[in-house]
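Q: I'm writing up a methods section and want to include an example of the input and output format. Could you take the sequence below and give the corresponding predicted structure tokens, formatted cleanly so I can copy it straight into the document?
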Amino acid sequence: MKVIIDGYEDLVMAEENETLGELLLQLEKWISENKRVIVEVRLEGKPLSESDKRSLFNRRAGEFETLELFTANLWQWAMGSLEEIKSYLPQIAKEIEGVSFFIQQGNYKDAFLLLGKCIGLWDEINEVLMKIENIFALDYTKIFLKENFSWRMEEVVQYLREAKRALRDNDFLALADILEYELAPRIREEKKVVEKIISILKHQMN
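A: Here is the clean output for your methods example:
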């Protein structure tokens, strides 16, 4: 297998019986030690999602021709990602309210589609936040307790998934209330958590 990192070949060689998962873990560790982070992985020229990585984890690296990695400066990536998340949160909350509106109008098809989009966006946000927590050795639980946040990011994911189940079970009125009065305000409140994480990382940088 040819491994290409930011356009450079032969920086790392895959061992004969090494699995793709083992190789990716090795590369992630090596890149992290160099104060960089992987922002995109391509296998055979195609972007590799997290679910793809899991499904291919135990395949031999030698089964594939080319693995490409694109990296970024660790601090720049983290700060840029957090600022982007902070800007997305009000829009997600607004779209959650839009799901509630569609339900109240009896437009369940559009409600389901928009809710699915919100779940996908939140899963991506949560994945980035968890990655930042691991890389920078943060403890979000302590942050939440210290700042008197009574909930965690995972709870938002749980609310979103419960909302989708309720939609499938036709419990529409209760669902609309949960989305508008419980979930949307909590997502807006999440902005304070992101701002706190940004503050902590800036302190670490100085």
